[in-house]
């Protein structure tokens, strides 16, 4: 196994060694499940729309909890000193941690496929928006994980890392709901910045390169800023 | 093996390491000594590539850490201060993880694992979480981690801090054993430890090297030696003023001593560095009518040398 895959698998396993993963998955399923099914039968529609509508806001407070320890704990314990003096580059470390977080997001979304199966069993489910929704969820999850990873690299304190990360994710989620406060000239720009706007586009089942490009740039920016934060420690 | 020139490290205006030059050859065990905050850890961290120097050059095995960080990291084992390890991992899992990150082949990893486990005495704790281990055991796991890939250079930051006397003894003999083939640099502020394990001691104070040499040579040259005299037949003032006039004597102080009987007094003479004024002192005493009861040159302990060199 190469250095990259071994750090990745260590980070991914770490989630399941501690109770964090189980707790976060449980909370995530409880929140999304409750809000989805509380209106599902009233709406009487065989779609996952209300599930995906809520996803950005749920992710905004769940994902920073998954990423907060990735660097902050290493800095706090000091284990980062051993890690960085092993033959593995900072970029490899960052990417392996990022990939572990994305896999964790995927693991968290996996049980929600049961919602899709259940809806498909009850009615006629259109597969397009579901596939788009899950793809969008991964992109959105990846973007928030990159942001969370960056805030984790800023501090030794996991709580601070979480709060900063959640703040950034909330801002990107809610920014397009405040458009009426914004001067009309920059309205489109502000809307373009909103993660939830791009997510909803993909979740409709229309995969537009502009939306994919948006998430790719957020991920790239998050990881790039993480590299800078790590290098500043030297 | 390792050469450092003009190494400097500043932290926000504070100079932790100030133009250090140091060359370490293969097979040497070098002890970095100094008071807390002298710059030992910073120097070691720069050597391992954890910190980037603000100035000066570092060359390890002829390679530049900026150009070839991976090649250098492969041949280096590092135990940071107080062994910061992942607390939620089992000792076995942790060592396997380190082996894999260091890209050891599974067969080689097995073999090396057996070796370091027996060398560091980890048999009974392999399946315990690291967080539950005592400080000494954690330190040993840290050492095992640093030795796992059989590195040519071993860098240990305070390897024996927090260990009990038996463990200290074990770690010291282990370092001695490793040091026969490998280059070892360790930091400590325990002098007896450096004296027991190191071929060479480098004393750092306020970011500068103030002494460098084998423990024996340091004792000899660092500064003058002390002589204890027990005399009778003269007044205190007379003795002090006469002896102070001898060339090569730095200071003369009467000291209370149990060895001195009533009527005689104990005198501590401090000599200048690199001069041996003993014949002159003897001749001077011979010209008086004092009685010389004792004339004892005192080997200066490393503690005294250390204190003198690192005084504020």
Brief characterization of the structure:
Chain A is built from eleven helices and no strands.
What does this structure look like?
The complex is a heterodimer of chains A (234) and B (312). Chain A is mainly α and 234 residues long. Chain A is built from eleven helices and no strands. Helix content of chain A is 80%, strand content 0%. In chain A, helix 2 packs antiparallel against helix 3, helix 3 packs antiparallel against helix 5 and helix 3 packs antiparallel against helix 8. Chain B is α/β, with parallel strands linked by helices and 312 residues long. Chain B has two domains: 219 residues, P-loop containing nucleotide triphosphate hydrolases (Rossmann fold, 3-Layer(aba) Sandwich); 88 residues, Alpha-Beta Plaits, CATH 3.30.70.1340. Helices cover 35% and strands 29% of the residues of chain B. Chain B has a six-stranded mixed β-sheet, sandwiched between helices. In chain B, helix 4 packs antiparallel against helix 5. The longest helix of chain B has 15 residues. Chain B starts with a strand and ends with a helix. Classes of the chains: A mainly alpha (234), B alpha/beta (312). At the A-B interface, helix 1 and helix 4 of A face helix 2 and helix 3 of B.
């Amino acid at each position: 196994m190469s250095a990259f895959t071994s750090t990745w698998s260590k980070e991914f396993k770490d989630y399941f060694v501690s109770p964090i993963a189980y707790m976060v998955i449980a909370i995530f399923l409880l929140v999304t499940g409750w809000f989805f099914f509380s209106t599902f039968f009233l709406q009487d529609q065989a779609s996952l729309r209300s599930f995906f509508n809520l996803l950005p806001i749920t992710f905004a407070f769940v994902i920073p909890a998954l990423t907060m320890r990735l660097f902050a704990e290493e800095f706090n314990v000091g284990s980062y000193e051993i890690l960085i003096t092993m033959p593995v580059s900072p970029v490899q470390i960052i990417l392996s941690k990022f990939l572990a977080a994305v896999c964790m997001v995927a693991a968290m979304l996996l049980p929600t496929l049961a919602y899709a199966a259940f809806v498909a069993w009850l009615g006629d489910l259109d597969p397009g928006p579901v596939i788009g929704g899950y793809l969008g969820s991964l992109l959105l999850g990846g973007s928030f994980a990159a942001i969370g990873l960056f805030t984790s690299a800023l501090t030794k304190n996991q709580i601070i890392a979480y709060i900063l990360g959640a703040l950034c994710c909330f801002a990107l989620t809610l920014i397009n709901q405040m458009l009426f406060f914004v001067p009309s000239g920059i309205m489109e720009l502000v809307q373009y910045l909103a993660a939830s706007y791009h997510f909803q586009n993909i979740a409709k089942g229309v995969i537009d390169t502009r939306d994919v490009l948006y998430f790719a740039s957020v991920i790239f920016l998050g990881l790039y800023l993480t590299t800078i934060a790590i290098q500043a420690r030297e | 093996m390792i050469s450092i020139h003009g190494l400097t490290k500043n932290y926000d205006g504070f100079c932790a390491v100030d133009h250090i030059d140091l060359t370490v050859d293969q097979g040497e065990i070098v002890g970095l000594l100094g008071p807390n905050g002298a710059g030992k850890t910073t120097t070691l961290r720069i050597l391992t590539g954890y910190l980037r120097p603000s100035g000066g050059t570092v060359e390890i095995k002829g390679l530049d850490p900026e150009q070839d960080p991976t090649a250098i990291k492969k041949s280096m084992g590092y135990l940071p201060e107080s062994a910061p390890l992942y607390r939620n991992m089992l000792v076995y899992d942790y060592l396997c993880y380190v082996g894999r990150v260091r890209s050891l082949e599974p067969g080689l990893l097995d073999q090396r694992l057996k070796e370091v486990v027996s060398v560091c005495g980890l048999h009974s704790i392999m399946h315990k979480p690291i967080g539950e281990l005592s400080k000494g055991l954690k330190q040993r796991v840290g050492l095992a981690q640093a030795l796992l890939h059989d590195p040519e250079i071993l860098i240990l930051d305070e390897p024996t801090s927090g260990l009990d006397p038996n463990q200290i003894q074990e770690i010291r003999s282990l370092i001695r054993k490793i040091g026969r083939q490998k280059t070892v640099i360790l930091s400590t502020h325990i002098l007896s430890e450096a004296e027991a394990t190191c071929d060479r001691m480098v004393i750092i104070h306020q970011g500068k090297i103030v002494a460098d040499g084998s423990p024996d040579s340091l004792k000899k040259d660092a500064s003058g030696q002390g002589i204890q005299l027990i005399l009778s037949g003269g007044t205190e003032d007379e003795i002090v003023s006469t002896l102070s006039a001898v060339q090569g004597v730095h200071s003369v102080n009467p000291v209370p001593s149990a060895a001195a009987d009533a009527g005689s007094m104990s005198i501590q003479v401090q000599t200048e560095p690199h001069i041996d004024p003993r014949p002159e002192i003897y001749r001077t005493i011979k010209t008086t009518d004092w009685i010389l009861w004792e004339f004892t040159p005192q080997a200066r302990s490393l503690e005294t040398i250390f204190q003198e060199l690192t005084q504020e």
